[in-house]
Design a protein that fits this description.
By secondary structure, the protein is α+β, with helices and mostly antiparallel strands. The chain has helices at 15-32, 88-101, 113-129; strands at 4-9, 37-38, 49-50, 54-59, 68-71, 75-81, 105-109. It has one domain (4-129). Strands 2, 3, 4 and 5 form a four-stranded antiparallel sheet that branches. A three-stranded antiparallel sheet has the order 6-1-7, covered by helices on one side. The longest helix is centred in the N-terminal third of the chain and has 18 residues, at 15-32. The protein starts with a strand and ends with a helix.
Length: 130
């Protein structure tokens, strides 16, 4: 078993809140992180996808692992193994943000507070800037 984050959504996430609050905050998380990010495959010369229905990203090149994809749609179960690679703190911050904004979103992790501290700091930086 690896280091994994898990999440579920009991219902589709609100479009208005996603577009007006979640997407701008995710973009700030990405901007404030010092992590080189790419598309969900970790390909060079690509960017994460942050749009009206999905957030999709990975680390770049050798710092990539599993695709991190959060959609607005209902999901009984989803997960991402990051193997503690640098993009993990971005994933943790986004999961914390989703948990804060959406009543129907829940997440958990094999990691503990010590392993999440960088993501938590990034999440808190975004909250302070709001």
């Amino acid at each position: 078993m690896g280091y994994t984050h898990y999440w579920n959504k009991k219902a589709e996430l609100d479009q208005n809140k996603w577009s007006k609050e979640f997407v701008p905050a995710v973009n700030r998380i990405i901007e404030l992180s010092d992590v080189e990010l790419a598309n969900s495959m970790g390909d060079a010369l690509t960017d994460p996808t942050v749009d009206s229905n999905m957030v999709s990203l990975n680390g770049l090149g050798d710092d990539s692992y599993e695709s991190f994809i959060v959609t607005r749609g209902k999901e009984d179960f989803n997960f991402c193994k990051t193997a503690h690679r640098p993009y993990d703190k971005v994933c943790v911050a986004i999961l914390m943000l989703a948990n804060e904004l959406f009543e129907d979103f829940e997440w958990s992790s094999d990691g503990d507070d010590e392993e999440h501290w960088e993501g938590k700091l990034l999440f808190e930086q975004v909250l302070i800037k709001n």
